[in-house]
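Service request form, structural biology core

Requester: graduate student, group of Dr. S.
Request type: structure prediction, single chain
Budget code: on file
Notes: please return the result as structure tokens.

Sequence provided:
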Amino acid sequence: MEFKEIEKRIQQFYPGAVAGDEAVEKYLSKLQKEHQVDLTKVLFATSICSDDANFSADFSKVLSRPFVMGGLGGLPYTGFTGMVAYAHHIPDGGDAFIFYGPHIGINEEGELGRMRRIGQSADSNSCGALMLALDRLITEEDEEVYVPMASEVDYQQILLERSLMPFKHDIVNSAFPKKAITDKTYDIIHKLLHKYVAMAKNEFHCQRIIFLGGVIINTDPNHQDYIDIRNFEVLNVSDIKAVKSVDMTHMKAFKEL
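Core staff response, request fulfilled:
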């Protein structure tokens, strides 16, 4: 399939999507020109899936040393402690910048949830963790409640599936379940990050926290990836409403994360 055909398919599902390099250039320019952000003093963080396919949103070319919060599906598994550590590592006089969201593939046949990876001759799932979760939700569709068993050897996948369980009916009965599970995952990541930031508000000594969230759309090696931006916020830390955090905030080691 020609790239123009793939682009049409992308626009069918994600009308606002733009090429990954275009998104990077656009939002870094906005930060510099409209918000006077000094990129040399920004600590960049990500909460995206650990999948090696997610190289398209390469802010690290400009913003080095990313703080990695995400794991399978893009959920911020580092949690509250990770957010505090991130807050403590921001350069003096700098800003926080968090890029987040899940990913989904579109292959040359225009199929959602599939992509051709570099060096491989066959397609595979993207996001693999989300497509596995979807398969399990569909398999258990006839059961009233599907609760994944706890497992120390696969805790990220289990937590991902548990987080998606409240939306099982909407996902499974959607016209496009692969898109639906990806969209729900975006919502979960968005809410968790804002929750952790509110919990850790008093640990941020910078003036601003920048959020950039969206869905990364993986294509094939011969084509560029896209990003469907869903949220762009530049928040003053002073305006964020703090929520109660956990008891360990008084500990010396916590203060020195």
